[in-house]
Amino acid sequence: MKPSQFRTFLKCAVVLAILSQAWPSLAQQNTGAAVSQSSEVSQTAPSATAPAPSSVQAGTSPTNAQPAPMSADASGGADNAGKSLKGVVATSLKELSPWSMFLSADIIVKAVMIGLAFASLVTWTVFIAKMIELAVAQRKLRVALDRIAESRSLGEAQMALGTRRNVLSSLLAAAMREARLSAGISSDAGIKERAASSFAEIVRAEARRIRTGMAILATIGATSPFVGLFGTVWGIMNSFIGISKSQTTNLAVVAPGIAEALLATAFGLVAAIPAVIIYNHFARVMRNYLELVGRSSGAAGRLLSRDLDRTHIGAHSRAAE
Questions:
Q1: Domain range holding 278?
Q2: In angstroms, rounded to a whole number, what is the distance separating the alpha carbons of residues 226 and 216?
Q3: Does any domain span residue 40?
Q4: Alpha-carbon distance 171 to 192, whole Å?
């Protein structure tokens, strides 16, 4: 071998030896760089989905390619969002108690509910007061009629009643006053007519007195449903305004306003129905009581007629003597 060729071969061997020693370190450096790049990509997009294949296999159409499945993080987030929405709706529905609806209602609806609650309180107050008044008045008048059933004159009847004050005692007092004022008048028909006029005034006054509070019951029973309906209309109007502002028809948004509006109607019915029932009940009881008053007026008139007849009989007997 020539010296020049030998030197060339020696140089190539040295270069190959150097390259063989340096190649493992270069490969290791390239691998570390690739790993660092992949870690940076994973840190910037932890929830990225798996990349789609770059090419389609032979014999498979593009329409048959399946989409990449959603990652576990994305599906978990969607489930959590759905559960939170259901929880909000359930909480809103649980909070729809009458007291919470009243507190969250509009000021006009609150005023309507308070007014109807006050009307209901007035209704039951009138009911209790009139029940006691009518029961006591009926009992007293029946006892008084029984006491004067055997009386022969106005004086005996007043003595039988004693100091008790009722409509019958007023009728007897009016009859005796008319008899005293008509002393010396021989016309019995005139005395009885004037006494009947006094009796009618007393009966009308007693009827007006016993009907006290009935007008309130009639007014509450007739107007409460319409007042409650006004509150319902106002509440539904505000509910629709809230829906238009929120731009959603979610149950949690729509239900409270409508429930508050319907609560006003419920208050109206709670005030109106008892008022109507109580009014009808008292109308029947008062008719019975006024019948007793009419009986008392008739009893006083009969006693006055007996006294007048006795007076004329006594006068005739004295004239005959």
A1: 101-320
A2: 16
A3: no
A4: 13
Percent of the chain with pLDDT over 70: 64
Contact, 300 vs 175, CB < 8 A? yes
221 contacts 275 by C-beta, under 8 angstroms: yes
Non-local (6+) Cβ contacts of 228 within 8 A are 112, 116, 264, 265, 266, 267, 268, 269, 271, 272
* 58 confidence band (pLDDT: 50, 70, 90): very low
What is the spatial distance between Cα 265 and Cα 113, in angstroms, rounded to a whole number? 9
Q: Give the type of residue at 67.
A: P
Is residue 206 over pLDDT 60?
yes
Lowest mean pLDDT of 8-22, 100-114, 182-196, name the range. Answer: 8-22
Rounded distance between C-alpha atoms, residue 315 and residue 98, angstroms: 80
Task: State the average pLDDT over residues 129-142.
Answer: 93
Element of type H or E holding 2 = none
Q: Is residue 189 part of a domain?
A: yes
Establish if 94 belongs to a structural domain.
Answer: no
DSSP state for residue 67 in the 8-state scheme: P
CB 154 within 8 A of CB 304: yes
Domain count, the chain: 1
Residues 279-318 have pLDDT tens digits of 999 999 999 999 999 999 999 999 998 888 887 665 555 5
Query: What number of CA atoms fall less than 13 Å from residue 142's CA on the CB side?
Result: 8
Q: Are 268 and 246 in contact (CB under 8 A)?
A: no
Q: Is residue 48 domain-resident?
A: no
Entry pTM: 0.64
Place of tokens 């296999």: 57
Contacts of 140 (CB under 8 A, 6+ apart): 164, 166
